[in-house]
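Tutorial handout. Part one gives the primary structure; part two gives the three-dimensional structure as tokens.
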Amino acid sequence: MYKRFIVVVLVVFIVSIGFVYNSLAEGQNILINGEFEEWDDTDVIVGDWKEGGDNIKKMLLPYEWGIWGWGDRKKDTTVYEADSEVYHSGTYSARIEGVSQVVSQAAYTNTPVIEENISYKLSGWIKTELEGGQHATINAILRVGNTTKTQYNTKHITGVNDWTYSEIIITLKDMEDVTSMYIYCAVNGSNEKGKAWFDDIKLEEIEDSTNSL
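Part two.
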């Protein structure tokens, strides 16, 4: 009777540990520095990307994040900066601003470590002062090698808006061939000035769902 009691207690304990582990995993932000609180000097290729990597300059960028965009960075048409005056939480947000014009796409990028057959929720807060046909969004691109398999986008935010929450559900079920995920905090739209701020970007493991904002 005593041994049976110990076995029952051990089973309950193991099941409880598994439940707690799964609960913690579902609530954990997989993105490093999604709050944009840490910034580092980073080597960045300037000029047209086709020129190669011999033309480098230092830029202050969020730790574990890069930048991407079409256009010539030598002309400094787009500014990527930490903003200590406008933020959703903490002390900084990540701002994209057009000086003379915003390139057709400008984005902060992150490449998280993902697992097969898992559903994720990608979410974040965006504030905008955009012009014309510009819009801001948070994207997730799933790739097989260097080829894009599919893309998920939060809703497009246009015009002038205070901090707005957006989310999208990403499922990797039946996508065993996916090798990587790229996260983009992006401004899209050509030949126009404008500003967008991004903050509190999260990628969380969740149970299956199809809701998005």
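Part three, for discussion. Confidence is low (pLDDT under 50) at residues 5-25. The domain at 31-206 is CATH 2.60.120.260 (Jelly Rolls).
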